[in-house]
C-alpha cells in the first residue's frame, strides 16, 4: 500500500480517538528524525507517544 494511504488511515483513526498525527518538519534526508511521526493530543498540545516513530510504529502504538 502507498505510504500516503496508510498515513491518511492512521490520521483518521487517531482523529476518532481525539488525537492527531504530526509529521517531522525536518527537510534534510540525512538528518536524524527525517520522515518520522509523533502522536499529539491537541487539547493539551503535548506528545503522547515518543517522537521519531515510523508509520508502522504508530500503527503498533495505536493497537496496544
Task: Characterise the protein shown here.
- The protein is of the alpha+beta class and 64 residues long.
- The chain has one domain (3-62).
- 34% of the residues lie in helices and 17% in strands.
- The chain has two helices and three strands.
- It has helices spanning 3-16, 55-62; strands at residues 20-23, 37-41, 46-47.
- Strands 1-2-3 form a three-stranded antiparallel beta sheet, covered by helices on one side.
- Helix 1 (3-16) packs parallel to helix 2.
- The longest helix has 14 residues, at 3-16.
- The chain is globular and about 35 Å long.
- The model has no long low-confidence stretch (mean pLDDT 91).
Count of discrete domains: 1
Mean pLDDT: 91
Name the overall outline. globular
Query: What count of helical segments does DSSP give?
Result: 2
End-to-end separation: 22 Å
Structural class category: alpha+beta
What percentage of residues falls in helices of 4 or more residues? 25-40%
Percent of sequence in beta strands: 15-25%
Number of strands: 3
The radius of gyration computed from the alpha-carbon positions, rounded to a whole number of angstroms, is 12 Å
Elements, N to C (H/E): HEEEH
How would a textbook summarize the main sheet? Answer: 3 strands, antiparallel
Low-confidence stretches: none
Major beta sheet, strand line-up? 1-2-3
